[in-house]
Q: What sequence folds into this?
């Protein structure tokens, strides 16, 4: 979720920061499945189709800012990873405390088992279910930095494309991947989900940042009408792709698709070309709110469900979705308004 802006891209892009909020809302949609009580197909759409671009967007903009700074000769690795570690560790401490009460105090976990699992989670799986993003992002940052030092960044960028295709064969095109020797063994590993998040989706999405910088001179000359058309066409093609994947029963799940990668590239290209420089106040607010919403929404979701229980209210996904989004927006705005140095560490 965190980004850094130094060097040749020193000014914040308010369009990117505003779109971050949309993507954070998409993540909440994944974890609440809104409208599912109204219609199961509608619930499926808002859990699996609508939010597809959400988390990939955060990887891609992290790559765009970090790789841009790296390629401009700035020494940003320590500064960037330190900032990420602080926010990740603070929120991990909050969720670890919650899990301690749930698993140890009110459950039957031993302290040793609890500590062992939290260490594994923090470094490999992600300290909470939505925080798998952080270990995957750290892997991308470290790998890209090492390759940059070895003058292999371009090789890594192009290598990430076949890696992404393998990710697609393990998810949306599973029925096809299961027929390919070697690929079949890989995508059926018990740890494939972890590997896919880090190597076959996180890294390729992060390296979109490289391609955005590689074609930036051409993007500067590309008009909005052409980008509008390209985004619209790619969105239609992605929806058709998903339709046929489901129709043919190819999927194990729908997490990454071929046209998602292209759509993400085009959307960020459009945002880069339209930075909305005059809207810095809105950009700051949406950046803080989106960060806070992403980090905190499972906490708010637990509180909301806890409060709904004694009222004998059904755990409707729609209510949880809107209440969680609303609550995190309000608290995020308060954090932005107060501008306290300690609270700011949470976002």
A:
């Amino acid at each position: 979720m965190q980004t850094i802006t130094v060097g040749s891209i020193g000014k914040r892009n308010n369009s990117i920061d505003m779109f971050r909020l949309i993507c954070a809302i998409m993540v909440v949609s994944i974890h609440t499945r809104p409208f599912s009580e109204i219609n199961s197909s509608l619930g499926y759409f808002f859990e699996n189709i609508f939010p597809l671009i959400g988390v990939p967007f955060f990887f891609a903009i992290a790559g765009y800012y970090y790789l841009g700074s790296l390629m401009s000769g700035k020494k940003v690795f320590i500064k960037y990873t330190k900032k990420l570690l602080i926010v990740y560790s603070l929120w991990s401490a909050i969720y670890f405390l919650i899990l301690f009460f749930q698993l140890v105090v009110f459950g039957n976990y031993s302290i040793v088992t609890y500590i062992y699992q939290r260490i594994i989670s923090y470094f490999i799986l992600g300290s909470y279910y939505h925080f798998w993003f952080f270990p995957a992002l750290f892997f991308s940052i470290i790998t890209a930095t090492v390759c940059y030092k070895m003058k292999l960044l371009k090789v890594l960028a192009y290598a990430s494309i076949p890696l992404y295709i393998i990710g697609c064969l393990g998810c949306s095109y599973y029925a096809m991947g299961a027929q390919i020797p070697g690929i079949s063994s890989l995508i059926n590993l018990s740890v494939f989900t972890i590997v896919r998040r880090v190597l076959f989706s996180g890294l390729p999405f992060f390296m979109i940042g490289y391609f955005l910088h590689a074609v930036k001179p051409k993007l500067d000359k590309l008009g909005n009408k052409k980008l509008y058309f390209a985004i619209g066409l790619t969105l239609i093609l992605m929806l058709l792709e998903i339709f046929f994947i489901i129709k043919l029963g190819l999927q194990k799940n729908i997490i990454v698709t071929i046209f998602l990668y292209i759509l993400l590239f085009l959307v960020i290209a459009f945002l880069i070309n339209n930075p909305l420089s005059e809207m810095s106040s809105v950009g700051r607010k949406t950046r803080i709110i989106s960060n806070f919403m992403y980090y905190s929404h499972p906490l708010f979701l637990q509180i909301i469900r806890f409060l709904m229980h004694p009222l004998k209210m059904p755990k409707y996904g729609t209510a949880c979705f809107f209440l969680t989004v609303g609550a995190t927006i309000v608290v995020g705005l308060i954090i932005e308004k107060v501008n306290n140095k300690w609270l700011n560490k949470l976002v």
Observations:
- Residues 15 and 274 are 7 Å apart (CA to CA).
